[in-house]
């Protein structure tokens, strides 16, 4: 069994999707006048909040941090904030920055996370997108070598950028995370401040991040489990971020 893909230019993948960015792409996005959203999730080093099968991948893209007396690992995503059509999408659904578009845009429709298989039904693309075009997957294996290289580049950037992202967040006062699998905390930083801090932090590669992380959780039951491990939990309402719950209603 194989999976084919051919873009039909519908523009759906460029609307209402926050596109993960590398550090250099986030700087470019800010310079172009775009908004970056910061999405944060973490798991405790004892494994709470993380399926065992996902641990290796999650550890490789996370930074070791403190929360109370507990050790945690925080994963931080800088993404292009697209509420509605991407700011670079023109009236004909063409990308205005195609030659320098983000790495994740080049990888689409493939997934970056190795634990998420490509599922055409979960994509916004119309059925005809999957009827023609080159083969992407044959017998469960990705056969497009260029895509495989781009995916590895994206994963490598995730691993290499994480400590710098932690320092950027510390400088911006971002220190509240969600528990992996329970939700995300989402911040919309002032972009002038974001760009300035990003530049400063990259000029000081040996400086350490400061400040412990706090957990915002979806319910008292989850909070009890996290606090029992020694981690600190936010009790007041969010003021500078939104909590995106992944918990089933």
From TrEMBL:
<dbReference type="InterPro" id="IPR005358">
    <property type="entry name" value="Puta_zinc/iron-chelating_dom"/>
</dbReference>
<dbReference type="Pfam" id="PF03692">
    <property type="entry name" value="CxxCxxCC"/>
</dbReference>
<protein>
    <submittedName>
        <fullName>Fe-S oxidoreductase</fullName>
    </submittedName>
</protein>
């Amino acid at each position: 069994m194989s999976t084919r893909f051919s873009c039909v230019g519908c523009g759906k993948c460029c609307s209402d999707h926050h596109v993960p960015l590398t550090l250099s792409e986030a700087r470019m996005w800010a310079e172009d006048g775009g908004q970056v959203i910061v999405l944060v999730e973490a798991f405790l080093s004892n494994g709470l909040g993380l399926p065992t099968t996902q641990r290796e991948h999650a550890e490789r893209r996370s930074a070791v941090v403190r929360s109370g007396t507990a050790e945690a690992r925080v994963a931080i995503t800088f993404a292009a904030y697209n509420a509605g059509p991407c700011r670079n999408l023109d009236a004909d659904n063409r990308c205005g920055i195609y030659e320098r578009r983000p790495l994740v845009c080049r990888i689409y429709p493939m997934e970056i996370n190795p634990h998420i298989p490509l599922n055409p039904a979960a994509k916004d693309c119309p059925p005809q997108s999957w009827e023609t075009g080159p083969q992407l997957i044959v017998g469960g294996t990705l056969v497009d070598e260029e895509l495989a290289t781009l995916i590895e580049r994206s994963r490598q950037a995730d691993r290499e950028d994480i400590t710098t992202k932690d320092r950027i967040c510390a400088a911006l006062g971002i220190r509240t995370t969600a528990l992996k699998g329970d939700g995300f905390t989402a911040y919309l930083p002032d972009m002038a401040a974001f760009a300035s801090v990003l530049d400063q932090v990259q000029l000081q590669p040996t400086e350490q991040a400061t400040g412990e992380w706090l957990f915002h959780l979806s319910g008292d039951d989850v909070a009890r489990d996290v606090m029992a491990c020694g981690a600190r939990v936010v009790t007041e309402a969010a003021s500078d971020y939104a909590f995106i719950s992944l918990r089933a209603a």
